[in-house]
Amino acid sequence: MLVFLVAAMSGCAQYDALRKCGRGCPGDAELAAAVSLRLHQHTEFLAPNQVDVQVIDGVIYLGGQVATELQRDDAEEIARQTPGAHHVVDIIGLEYPGW
Hints:
By secondary structure, the protein is of the alpha+beta class. A hairpin with a 2-residue loop joins strand 1 and strand 2. It starts with a helix and ends in a 9-residue tail after the last strand.
């Protein structure tokens, strides 16, 4: 019986680690700030290009607009190389509104 309880408890702990945090995980704001800082160090992302960063439940979401596919790929790679990054979702557009 005790072995069953220990196995069940370890399963719950594993499940809890995989659940989403709801309103955001601890560290989301810090990770978003770190990715934003790294992106702002690259002149290719200055206006009129704009890359927005949001982190929800540890997942980095990149939005905004850039001029080229290479710039979009670079932004994603910069985000992936940021310490603490595990998953990046790239929804950066390639067209500027009104152009």
